Every structure is written in structure tokens, then in C-alpha cells.
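Complex 586.
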Amino acid sequence: MSTPLENWVEESAKLTKPSKVVWCDGSEAENNRLVDEMLGDQTYIELNPKTYPGSYLHRSNPNDVARTENLTFICTSQRADAGPTNNWMSPQDAKEKVTPLFDGAMRNRTMYVVPYVMGPEKSPYSKIGVEITDSAYVVASMKIMSRMGGVALERLGNSPDFVPGLHSLGDLDPERRFILHFPEEHLIWSVGSGYGGNALLGKKCFALRIASYMAHTQGWMAEHMLILGLEDPSGKVTYMAAAFPSACGKTNLAMMVSALEEQGYRVWTIGDDIAWMHIASDGTLRAINPEAGFFGVAPGTNEKTNPNIMDAVHHNTIFTNVALTPSHEPWWEGIDGPMPSGLVNWKGEVQKGSSAAAAHPNSRYTVPAAQSPSISPRWDDPEGVPISALIFGGRRARLAPLVFESRNWQHGVFVGATMASETTAAATGAVGVTRRDPMAMLPFCGYNMGDYFAHWLEMGAKLKNPPRIFHVNWFRRGADGKFLWPGYGENVRVLKWMIDRIEGKAGATETPIGNVPTPESLTLEGLDISPEAVNELLRVDPLAWVEESQAIGKFFEKFGSRLPEELRTEHQNLADRLQRSIVPVK
Ligand code: OXD
Ligand code: MN
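Predicted structure with oxalic acid bound:
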């Protein structure tokens, strides 16, 4: 008798017609074989073995360098269940359309069967996925990003309880590229892209889109959040999870070298992108990081912005679409030091001048999480870590103050649901446009976002001691257009204010949008910042927020009757509070 997994593999092989099928065991020997093959066919370029041992550069097709949200679909039987923020196709239409693209797609190629666990190997909260792919680069990346191979097969046994994901590079033509999710079947199909978020199916496709759907039906949360622990001088660690849209500094925050380390405040990393959170038997919210690696944006990363990752990526790392120095080291815009001469750009061409970027703005490193010096001793804890604070944030050049605290869980859900940010290069499309990105889940929610908001509200009601909810904005600019806040390691000062709030030690001013720190309640010693800049960072401009409130109203209209009443009430509440705070001019 064959197992459900064997049946699905056989069915997929019949459709895609590979020349051979390889079941991946996740061993070093297997990885070495793949590396040799990829060096042979130039999928990989070896980096300097002295300074970057075990590390390789991969150049993707220039038309395939970022997630393609316009080609990403949620295929529920009812359109309304995918909601107004997702692209939708019916499961039947999607399969009819895309089956021909898989038909024979793996001819003369190897089909790899990649079983993996998302989450710590022994955690009751972990889940199993199996990706079928014809890309060796995807296999090597999945080995870093998940617990891949025999561990997953052992845990699965003969059970049908896994998320199947069928992936083929196809012909890499964007016209024939589809990233399809069938949440009702827990199934993923992806064709025509070899890029990370489209092709490493454990990450965005499973751990966010399919998992958010599962979490809704099963009573837990799958969120686009980093997880960190902030240690205080007494050695106590407070755990926090934070949602920011793609490429807004989640990795840097999760791995921060604290500017207050001498005072005993230290940051420990549990995860940099995704949190799965469950209500434990003691009523606390427990978070695990389903991933085992970091797939981070390289440009802008340097010894100042993220010294821990700079250390981590010096071995066993896959770089994608970065530039290459003559001594075969990776290079990107914003790395320490000047642009070296003789650089080869991300497309493999000799770099001429600096008018065009040498590394693609969305170039990446893929590195095992355990290699970061900041990794928490509890990052692999099967029970997860208890979360005391949830943080939302985005890039807002003008509007949002450095930090504010919501009044309660319901208000916090409203703050998350109305989050907005200026877009980055992590997805294809215009950069720098303000878009509303609730809980940073806009591209990743596997069901109707109105129902997702309702789920958040329900989770809060079930928690004994719901985490406090904060909003941060590291990106506010002054009248001169310059950032007001130094960011990076200095952000610990804001995290410290949060734990001081949780412990009832820090002051705040009530404003229509929430509680904003009093300047004295922030720990600013040793920071070169003027009192005027601090005031500007903390300023809430009611007139600008009235405009924001109107934009929120427009956004909420999209959800019609699926918008929870509580959020309408919070919106009205904001409008009323703003009204009261605006002193009429006589
Ligand atoms: C990511 C993203 O790659 O959010 O994490 O795009
Ligand atoms: Mn992300």
C-alpha cells in the first residue's frame, strides 16, 4: 500500500514527466552533490573559500527577482472567502488554467521531493510540508530555511497531514507564472518563478498564506512578524513580536546590537519574518519561529545596521543577485566601504560607474538562523516563547510618531488593521507609494481580511493577559527631509519604553491615536538628539490624522459586511477623539 505522500509524488511525476525523481534526505552528502551540480551548470558561483567558506552566489533570471503579487492567487470555492484584498480564481478554473503549464514541465529535469518541518522538530505547534521542485537552488535554500529531509519524513510517517506544494521553474516567462494557493485543500502550486518568496513554498505560501487560513479555523495565529527577546539588567527576558511590511527592517530589529548593552539591555533573536502563535494552557500567547533560516534583503546591510548578520553570512550562505568583487566576495549598495573597481553586477556584467545599482535592490542572503551571534537560547524551544508585546510599524515619512501604545487589545487590532507603509523593492511594482498593509499581511493573508480582523479580536478575548499592542515608525522625517530618529541599535530605547510601560514605570500622554511617550519617559542618555527633534518625533498632528481617518474609512469600505463592528466603533472613536482635540479657530 502506498502512502498519501507517495501517491501525490507519483501523480505529480505523471503530470510533470521528470527524467528522474530524487527524495531529499537533508544530509550534508546530498547538499554537497547538489553544490557540485550547481557549480557545474553555473546555477552557483563559488565565493572566496577563505573569507566566505561554503558560500555561493546565485543569479536569477532578470525577470524573476521579487515576489509577484499580481500573479499570486487565493483559490477558495467562494470569491468572498478570498476577500477584497486577494486575487482570486476558483479552484477549478485555476487548475484548468495551470495544469497545462505543469504538463511535461520537468522533462529532462530532476524532480526533487523535499519534505520539511516548519517549526522546531519536536514542537506540538510545528507542521509538515512537502515541496516537489525541479530547482536544485530551491532544495539548497529549503535546507537552510526549514528542518528538511529525514526529520520530516519520520514525523509524518504514513499520515496524510502535510501541506503539498508543487513547484516548477517552467520556462520562467512571467506570462506563464502563477503562485496558487488552495487553502481549503491546504495545497500550493507555483510555476514559472525560481525567486524566494514565490518558490520556497514553506515560507510565504505555507507559513503565512495556508497557515493563516489553518490558524483561523484552528484557533491560532500565523503572522508576518519577527520575534525577539529583550533582556533587562536583571537578566529577565521580555519577548515581543513585530509586524512590518517587507523590507522595513524586521531582520535588523530582530538582530539588533542594543545601544544600551552597557546598561544591561540586550536583544536575542528568535525569528525575523514569521511567527506562529498559540494560546498555551496557562492563557499566554506562545510564539514559535516556523523557519530555520533568514532570507534577508542584502542592500543597506552593514556593520552598523546589522553587525550580527554581517558575521553570520560569512559562511554557509547563499547569496542571490548581489554583485561580485574581483576577489569573489559578495557586494551590495550600502555594505561597508567604497564600491570596489572591477565589480561584476547582479546580472553578471562588468559594472560601469554607480548610476545603476550593482546589486539588485531585492538581492538576498539565505543563512541558517543558528549562525547569528544574537540567536536566542530559546529560538528552538518546542513550547515557544511567551509574548508580552506586539508591535506594528511601517514607513511613514510624515504622519506617525516614533511610538505609541494602543489603549487596549481592540484598539490595538484597529491600529494593526489600519497600518500603512511606503512600498519597497521586495515585491514588483512602484516603490515609495503609501499602501495600507494591515498587520503587514496584505500580500500574505490566505482568506478574507475582514474575517482575519475578526479572528484577531476573538483571539484577544481568549487570552488571559493579552500582550500590549504598540505602533512604531522609525522613518519619520523632519522639515529638511532627513530622518529624525537614528534607528538600528538605538531602537532598543523604544523597546525599553515598551517594557517600562508593561511594568507600569513609564509615562505617556493620551492622544487621539493612543498613548505617546512623554519625552522624559524615553531613555535618551548618550544619544545626540535635540529636544526639538524629540518633540517632532512624538508629535501627533490632529489635522493630518483627520485625513488619515478619512483614508481609513475608504479602506474599510472594501470589506462591506465582513468588517467587524468593533473596528467600525474604533474608527468612530478615532474620529470623535480627533474632533475633540481640534480647537476651533475663532
Ligand atoms: C520577505 C518578504 O521576503 O516579506 O520576507 O518579501
Ligand atoms: Mn517578509
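The chain has a mean pLDDT of 96.
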